Amino acid sequence: MRRDLTIKTGSMAGTSDFRVLAPIKKGFVPSLDATTYKTRAKYVLRGLNGGRASAYEYELARVLSDSVDRVGRIHSVGIAVLEPEDGTEDPVDYVLLTATFDGSWEAYVRVIWQKAARLLDLIFCNTEGYVLGYENTYEDWGIWLKSRQSEAYFLYTTPDLTVDDTRFLRMEERVYRRASGAGADKIVTEIKIPSPEEIARRSIFQVDGLIGVDPTDAGFSKPLTLEAAGRPPFRHGVRALAGLYHLADFYPPGTHDGVILHRAAHELLPEFVAMINDGNSYAEGIGRARLRIDEAMTWLMTPPDVAEPRRDLPFIPPDEQKLQDPGNVQAGIVKAYPDSDHGALLLLQFATPAALAAFLNVLKVTTEADALSAGQIVTNIAFTVEGLRHAGLTDDEVRSLPDEFVQGMQRRAGLLGDVRWNHPERWRLPASNWTLGADAPDLRADDPTPRIDLGAVHAMLQLRHLSTATPMAETRAALLAEMKRLVDVDPGVRPLSIQWMQRQRDAAGNVQDHFGFKDGTSNPVLNKRDAGLRYSNQVHLGEILCGYPNVADKTAPYGDASNRAHAMLRDGSFLALRKLRQDIEELEEVLLRSTRQATDAAAAGDPAPVLTRETLLAKMMGRWPTGHPKAGQPLTPTPPAGPGFNDFNYDYDTKAQSCPFHAHIRRANPRVRLTLADGGARPPRIVRRGMSYGPPVKRGDAQAAKDALQQERGLVFMAYNASLGEQFEVVQSWLAGGNSSGSSSGESDPFLGLAEAGRLRHFRFEHEGQTVRMSLDGSDRLHDEPRPFVRLEWGAYFFAPSKKALASLQQWAASLGRKPLVPWSVDDGEKEIARLREIERVEGEAAAMAGWKTAIEDPDSAANFINASVWAAIRERHGGVLRTPFGVLVADRDMVTQVLTDPYRHLTITGYLPRMQVSFGILYLGRDAGQEDQAYEQESAVCNDAIMALDQPAAFALARATTQKVLQTLVDLSIGFAQADGEASWELTVDVRELLEPLLAVFCEEWFGLTQDGGFFRRAGYRWDWTPGQPPNYPGHFLSPSRYIFQPHPNQQVEAIGAAHGSAARTAMIGFLNRFNATIKAPVTRAVLDSQRAQGDIPFVARTITGSMMGFIPTVEGNLRRILNEWLREGTLWSLRARYAGTAATDYTDALNRLGDDFIPAMQLRAVPELIWRTAVASFALGTGEHTVDVKPGDIVVAGAVSATQQNLVDGRKDYYHAFGGNRRVAGHPTHACPGAHPALAVMLGFFSGLVESTLPLRAGPAPLTLSLDGRLPENPGSPLTLALETRMLTANDFRAFELRSPSVAALHDPHEFQIQEAKKLQKVATAQLVTLGDSWLFKFPFGLRPSLVSSLEKLGYVAADSQRFGTYGRRLEEMAGANSLDEIRNCFQNPDPSVPAPQAMLIGGGGNDVVSGYTSPASTPLYKMLLQAPPAGTDPLIESEVHAFIDVKIANFYRTILDCVVHELKDLTNIPILIHDYDHSIPDGRKDPVAGPWLFPIFQARGITDLAVSRDVTRRLIDRVGAMVATVAASYPGRVFPVKTAGTLEADPRFPGNYKLLWANEFHPTEDGFDLLAKVVADKLKNDFNIG
Which residues are in the Dyp-type peroxidase C-terminal domain (predicted)? Predict the structure, then answer.
């Protein structure tokens, strides 16, 4: 029992919708102006929207990245302030956010938390109870979002088009707009979609030696100078800052609201913040901006705070991660089992919690602490969400678990890309094959063996045999014996389906899959010693097991210790299980066709190289297949060494010239290095523990291979992870059609992708400079059924608990007994009662009446157990009875019985009579017994006796047979249509009405004699298009009058339809009886016709029979619908079908024994009718004590029949008779107790037995109260299409397979071409390769616009490639020693660029900018602090303590941090000499660079030192001090670090005394001649001391 599962995030084909509705705070914001929170929210939204509109509409080029764009997956977003209508009492205003985005809620909100939380904080801090995203964990923020999320009832988005796709298509169109032919094809094939951050970075700053290049221009953009690239975005930033700072009036600095605004500004303007913090490159712009908005600039230049959850992110895993309690963790999860070639999965169901408890009591799972030995059987268990419910988790506890687990894989098919042929409605479900044991085969799609609906599965038992040499028959026998031992512990343990598994191995003994690839080589590792250098592959334990931190969450998610469901998660792991069928025949056909066509093209003179089968497979996978000399190696410029071939990335294959963007392993794991800038991100990693199924393909034996191709085989994919939503589901969506590798989602994974309908699927890649198009599966004929290489047979989510959690589950299940866990809440019911009473107080009785009607009768209220909660609250908090505007509600079971029996005749049923009068007429159902005229007794006796005498076993048999016959008829009809249309398969969706209407019609005929003969009635259900004058329908016309008469307060529509239908039925019945009186044999009608009261009074008989049918049909129809809905929602139908597959109840009693334990509780929960009403005719009291209700004449008394049955359910009583007005077969029964309760029960059990026992392939349908069926049709051997498919000889028209294009002769413009040419020239003179780290002295200015030491070194043959040159103009040594910089240096040595030679030396320099640059004023610089104020002549201007603290301590420590990283941390990767250059003696003469400076003169001037001789001397001494400090630091690293004394070089040149400006361009930077002199000093050191160069 549970509430309907509400999925608030709407989704369609991988695109989702998200909306948050939050009430705005009342009152005023803490500012000088009297501004409300609502007004501030409006100001913020208008300001942000105005800024975005200006950026997109006014700016010539929008270069600064947009905060929404940076999220990377938002299609649209809108935020509104909703205000109530004027005059509303105590109005509440709301902020409404709506967003449409790619992927699932879990992954989307993680990115929002990472990249846009501060922006949303700025908006939603104006709402009640908001949890600031930046200051709180992702989990806590997500909880608040879910609490304010509203359901998307309808969603439409453009399917199969991601946000990144629009960027790709825009870039592709730009290419083809200006170029054509093979050259354009090559560019498009190499397009990698840039992120918004990368677009901004490359458009503004220097990246790869270029500045101002727009990467979205696909190679056509021309580079700019630093000034030309920087000025427009800087001006844009100034305008945006001015607009943002206006909000400071409402978010005052110095307050927490001010902190929120300051954070948001940094999040909104990251590139502008970087520009203004670079005091050198943009000094001119900064100065101009300060003239106008100095306060705002100072505010923005102030570093923002870092909230606790954001510190130390990404959270680096410890070097070694040990399990705290290995004996608590199931084995085979954290580490794979060794040497296991055979295994089995057993899907289980537990009839009762007691059976589950018994099973767990004997189950001994293998743990990480257990010693393993050859020949041992290892055991694992994992549960579905239904299994956890069965173990005793309450509905609220289950709903507190991750949404994706609770919803399940089937409901999330669209998000996973499980569409079309992989849609759950087309899954080939597990076979009911337990009885076949070791011989249980993998079935073909057309096999008629009964299948198991996954809703019936409670657990998955996994056994593996630790052996590689034991024969399969022997291992299967051992595994089966262990399964039987466990299953036999209790009769309630139901084995449903076995899935046998076996590993495939190549000739060398390596594990491989059926496609011929080494398997299991790329799982993540936990310990640093196992990590790679180019790609670490190390993950936190919290990515695999729940209850531990992960890379983005320092506090483990779902850590609420007070929630036992959360506590249960620790040391457990979620499991995604998918059975993937591999079509070897189809793959080999495609490979054969493609290689043959390539060979034919080569023979015809095409210069294209021949592509072998192995090459094509390698391009598709991204690794070489077995049988190739490079088997297992990835397609990378520098393949890694080692057996796993796993230490690689794609950093130097950015155009996918080696490994295609869409190759399987590149899509599944793009291997992007995580940097500090990615703090808060959680890249998805999973551990795969699957195993193949089916026989191996014997590729060496041609005939054996041919014979085996048609056999069923594939992979049982099993992935463990701590978060299905953030890990497995993200990876799966990437494979199905995401943009993970940076290309279009339209080209899916070559192996796992699905062809679009009517589209032949192609795989495009580059090979040896040529664009290759390889056809895969699919067809250009619109409705052809494709043959995917990999098809999803079925899948499910499980949770593998820890050993302690298993013990808890055992205890919970054992403690349940027979008492069910109810889904309603007395507290919630009491709140609802209070709400309705408040409506009555404020809006009056009429409004309250409508509110009570909604709470008691509305279907949504019932589905979510609101009405059940209200009834429970009345029972437990109000003495069982409550006066309301709806009537006197009677909830207590005994009081309901009191109302129904009415021993003192305080109540009357005659309130029904006026409604009967205008409907089917007056009859005994509206009369009281014991009246003087004895009308009730005279009219009811015969009819009631006849109904009670109905044959229950016969009714059961008829209902079962009818249900199965109707189902079979519908299936036969569908099969016939499919055969007529030449289809290969048939499918059918059945609405429950298609079953119920014929079923009820049969009993209208069997018991009451109705027929279509004579045209009085029509055999049909309820039809909206019926009009008076047409024959009424049976059973359709007998439904609405019942609702009209038996509801306490029917609305006008019910009244009109009920009266019309009842009147029509009565009139038709009169005519029908007059015509067929003598021939009717149906027992009820015959008995009434033959009664004394009926003689000569056909209208009486017509009223009586019509009324009896209106009592029977709606009750049976309503209970059948509600019970079936409950069974479908709970999975009960599938559990019963699995339990009784292939068997039928022998009779009615047997069926009651088989189904009663599930049928009766469902009926008690959802009883129909829910309400029975009477009218008071006398004053009397209901209830006792303080809850007594004084009933007065005329009051409507509403007996909660459903409340009474629900009370019986809670108490474990089997009584369901309150729904029938009482049990007429016992003494003292209520007057109007239904005589047909037992026949109705027989009909209902017959219906459900028909469904449970049906051999047809039933499964849950796409909508509520629907069932789906499908199947394959036998192939027609004479059909040309079938023959073609069988012989695999389709023509080139059917499969246009392969295309090679050579590059055009005329190359397109490439902005990198000048770099390439320059590099080629340098290579001719290069004698040594360097790594450089420094400031502007070691910065290579684009186009040679300015000289530098590194440029002069290149003249001497010392080259630092882009990937080996670190540092930039204006960079401080403090930044060089920072985490980001050190990470770049590590990557240089751990992940070297294979296209450049290894470095022979490293050159470092820096510290000058730390002294003078990037500060808000001269007085804030370290140099200023080192100087005395206007020192008298003869006084040393320097303050020694400040000089020592800054140079000898602070700067020295920065150098030590850098050197420790290279010398110690990277000692195993490099031992090259490290040189540190000092500066030369600068001259503080006030000269500046064209875009920056002066640096020194303003500081000396601020200190009152205006004599150039004095300032030169101070500068000389400080530079010499730096040189001495460098020498001291270098001495700490003997044999590795060496100082290079450059100070004094320029003044030693003969030109210096005459005009030093020939050698010094400005205060800080030499001229080209000056740098040439300094470069010679460095080169001499390298050559003379190290023989480099």
Answer: 513-737
